[in-house]
């Protein structure tokens, strides 16, 4: 088997192998058999690489190279004064988590798996293979050629109000009719699908899996289905399309965590056109071998994508008007760029440098950094939320994984009525009291309410609830809604994390996912935004681990 074949098998094709830890553990050695190593590699990819990196150099999570993870015999002092990590301590960290933000895995991994991972991360990380343009091209499949696709919409669905829902652990996406709340189609996609994004026209949905599989769904088909696929890397999180006037539906771009690169494709077929590597220098001037592609967003101001490179802290403005002669503006910001969204004017893109506790704002009109704002611990905006604050004018909001606040940052506006707030721009004008473990915040231009989840909070009740504020009075939440209880689903061992509020196209409903156990039937709970009462519980035996939901109209037009 080739080296690539071995990695591939380790990542995705390996069935659960029996563990043979016995004597190795008893004798205190960390040695792994070939089977253990393959299993550990698979678990590491599925559970750890996202935060710690494939090369284990650390990003959102800590560095996990052997110089940190092995028992230190030379007396070197680690954080907290300890001189030892090693298997025992690592097992505790993996099992119970840390105050620094590491989540507990004792309800996800078995004791044997925790022991295996504690030993695996003391070994020198293998460097995975590269993935070339030719391999990307070889993986490309057109399932329904453009000429065989419908010339007009062939179904009676109100496409503006369709929700593309990630079914995380089944590697599927459910397309749900927002008007009738019926599941219209469930399509097979990549492993642990991450996000959906829309073409400028709203016809095509692009879905990226963590395994790098990008699927293109045509909403015009009688039953919307996947019409093309391509594998853009081994590990991926982001995708967007060309949205500037004259380039609608022309290109797609997807970012890869491993190898660190992005791929430009034709929008209607996913035919790969260009692969661009992102390795290079961090904003501190050090070379980084694994600068992963985090969020990508399409500009409405220019034919450009904003591509955020996590480890280096470099924000790329990639001009797609001539992809044969690609022009890129590189803007230094802060390390560990992750997720972000537009301000209300869609001129500024605000992105969290999460492990640096900063928000970087890029001015896509001038192509310059507009601001680098210090915020509380581990900002996690999703795409953030925009509204006009009664005292401070236009603001963009981010939640935090590591702090008990939602941060409001004043954003510039060219509207005369907001000129008086200019001195506030790029300042944190308010921190609203919330709880740690928040992942996503949301509002809508037609709503008076502001929603925030807290799925990563260790308290079960808080993880299963969302908070809603009246934007006219942000002094305290107007309501705490226990979504798990509201769903009427039976109690399960696994926590049903209430995650990712998403508005309907008309801004009148808010949909919340209940992210339950890997095999548990779960639900999306739909609330009436005005009354905060449950309007509908969408459930089905196939509704397993729903997480992100992307309303077609709101995602197409970046409304949040
Ligand atoms: Fe995400 C967005 C990366 C874990 C749900 N997530 C993003 C983006 C990145 C990212 C880079 C921005 C994409 C863009 O806008 O182009 N996410 C990562 C990770 O590296 C991380 C921390 C660990 C991992 O192994 O993947 C991670 N993410 C999660 C989850 O565990 C979540 C909660 C559940 C799930 O489905 O996997 C999750 N991430 C989401 C969602 C978005 C997202 C729903 C899009 C938010 C939006 O409204 O646009």
Plain-language structure description:
This protein has 560 residues and is mostly beta strands. Among the domains are: 3-120, Cytochrome Bc1 Complex, Chain D, domain 2 (Orthogonal Bundle), CATH 1.10.760.10; 135-277, YVTN repeat-like/Quinoprotein amine dehydrogenase (Methylamine Dehydrogenase, Chain H). It contains ten helices and 35 strands. The strands form nine sheets. Strands 1-8-7-6-5 form a five-stranded antiparallel sheet. A four-stranded antiparallel sheet has the order 4-3-2-35. Strands 9-10-11-12 form a four-stranded antiparallel sheet, covered by helices on one side. Strand 5 and strand 6 form a beta hairpin. Helix 1 (3-13) packs across helix 3 (34-52), helix 3 (34-52) packs across helix 6 and helix 5 (86-96) crosses helix 6. The chain is globular. Bound molecules: heme D.
Please give the structural blueprint.
Layout: H1 3-13, H2 22-26, H3 34-52, H4 66-69, H5 86-96, H6 111-120, H7 133-139, E1 141-142, E2 162-167, E3 172-177, E4 183-188, E5 195-198, E6 204-208, E7 213-218, E8 225-231, E9 235-241, E10 251-258, E11 261-266, E12 272-277, E13 280-281, E14 287-288, E15 293-298, E16 304-309, E17 314-319, E18 327-332, E19 337-342, E20 348-353, E21 358-363, E22 368-374, E23 379-389, E24 393-400, E25 405-410, E26 428-433, E27 441-442, E28 449-453, H8 460-463, E29 465-470, E30 479-482, H9 483-487, E31 497-503, E32 509-515, E33 521-528, E34 534-544, E35 546-551, H10 552-556
Antiparallel strand pairs: 1-8, 2-3, 2-35, 3-4, 5-6, 6-7, 7-8, 9-10, 10-11, 11-12, 13-14, 15-16, 16-17, 17-18, 19-20, 20-21, 21-22, 23-24, 24-25, 25-26, 27-28, 28-29, 29-30, 31-32, 32-33, 33-34
The protein binds heme D.
